[in-house]
Design brief:
The protein has 5 helices and 13 strands. With 237 residues, the chain is of the alpha/beta class. The strands form 3 sheets. A 6-stranded mixed sheet has the order 2-1-3-6-12-13. The protein has a 4-stranded antiparallel sheet with strand order 8-9-7-10. A 3-stranded antiparallel sheet has the order 4-5-11, with helices on one face. It is globular, with a radius of gyration of 18 Å. The structure holds arabinose-5-phosphate.
Length: 237
Amino acid sequence: MTVGIGSGSTIVYAIAHLVERLRGGAAAGGGGEALRDIRCVPTSFQAKQLLQEGGVPIVDLSVAPVLDVAIDGADEVDGELNCIKGGGGCHTQEKMVAAAARVFVVVADFRKRSRALGTEWRKGVPLEGLPMAYVPVMRAVTAMGGKPVLRMAVAKAGPVVTDNGNFIVDADFGAVEPAAVAPLHARCKLLPGVLETGLFPGMAVRAYFGCEDGSVEVWDRPARKGDEAGGAAAALK
Ligand code: A5P
């Protein structure tokens, strides 16, 4: 099985669990045997490093361009399973891996559930782009009615530099209704110099939310044209 592995704090736990299972650890319910043929495609330096440390076989999209499943966190998820991702700055690789997977599944905590993107996650839509493009992109976002901010590093002077050597502009467009997510993504992606947006329109088929009381809430993407019988999440069975 080829599995895309996302980035972020939630995924750190998922990788630790996977490594524990591969080692046959009782705390993870054993089952290492069933996973002996697994290979993973990481979506970031963070994921690659953790998988390597755990001894999990790693491949990339040039070797494994079609994945069985991709698992990732999200910054916000609406009822149609549109997501904002990129809080950790890795959304370009995350989107490539999600798009290459037969099914894309989100794991997140209850704070990520949302009626409309931009209402819970207030930091804006991450736009990864060429360093030379950041001022023109910020001007274009402003002209679109958004509020852009160049993401700044915390333990370094100057901007965040992504795994791909690019900058990130966080563009706050306020609340984005589900039907407006794909058009907004398309408009932003067409801005010269923008490599990828953190909007993931309808890519996930299922989202698992960990709740405060320890329970798990499951959302499936509403059925749409082209889905197999039983809806998109039927592919998970
Ligand atoms: C990384 O670029 C992001 O897309 C993360 O997947 C997302 O920000 C969720 O991260 P946490 O699990 O840390 O909230």
